[in-house]
Design a protein that fits this description.
The protein contains eight helices and no strands. Mean pLDDT is 80; it is low at 1-15. By secondary structure, the protein is mainly α.
Length: 203
């Protein structure tokens, strides 16, 4: 991934990492929406285990809208925060992981698809923790990641609606391809920061 040119007179490492820095506030409207999305796990699991799939699909759509809303509110109010960059993807991962595991338990998803989703999220989470400790900033999501999130959400939604196996396999394959691509892009971003940090460190 090509890095943006540095500003004359500014330390290269600070310039590159500074592009990802945000505010340190905690209690913002956007963060509150992200926390609320985590709470939606409780009714989602209840509805799934009760096999009320239509209501689960409706709740899933609502949760996805909150994911769009918190980002919109953060940008609109100029309140993009370091915590928000953490809690937003974590809320997504908690909600999606809980839903896919519950869907696996009731027979709506194959184990290989669930394994890919959960494994990728664990890798991203661990890499994010390492990057935060190493660079003192939280890396934002990338566009392939957003596309993967949308594709995965659509796959889960269609599965809840009971679409044909052909459609479901196509959507799962598309989701996995995007999940792998987003993981690759995230890895390139981390590697680029690490490379820049290493070349900027005096020996």
């Amino acid at each position: 991934m090509k890095l943006e040119p540095t500003i004359p007179g500014v330390d290269e490492n600070t310039d590159v990492i500074g592009r990802y820095q945000a505010k340190n506030e905690i209690w913002t409207p956007a963060n509150a929406i992200s926390f609320f999305r985590i709470l939606l796990v409780i009714p989602a699991i209840y509805l799934l285990t009760s096999k009320q799939f239509s209501l689960t699909a409706a709740l899933f759509c609502f949760a996805y809208l909150t994911d769009i809303l918190d980002g919109f509110v953060a940008r609109k109010t100029h309140d993009v925060t370091e915590l928000g960059k953490v809690i937003d993807p974590i809320a997504d991962k908690i909600f999606v992981a809980s839903v896919v595991l519950a869907m696996l338990a009731v027979g709506l998803l194959p184990i290989w698809f669930v394994a890919v989703i959960v494994s990728r999220d664990i890798i991203i989470l661990l890499a994010g923790i390492w990057a935060t400790r190493r660079f003192k900033v939280v890396l934002p999501s990338n566009y392939p990641g957003k596309a993967a999130a949308f594709s995965t959400a659509a796959t889960l939604f269609l599965s809840l609606l009971g679409v044909s196996d052909t459609v479901l396999v196509f959507m799962m394959s598309l989701s996995i391809a995007l999940l792998i691509l987003s993981l690759f892009v995230y890895g390139v971003r981390v590697f680029s920061l690490l490379q820049k940090a290493n070349t900027s460190t005096p020996h």
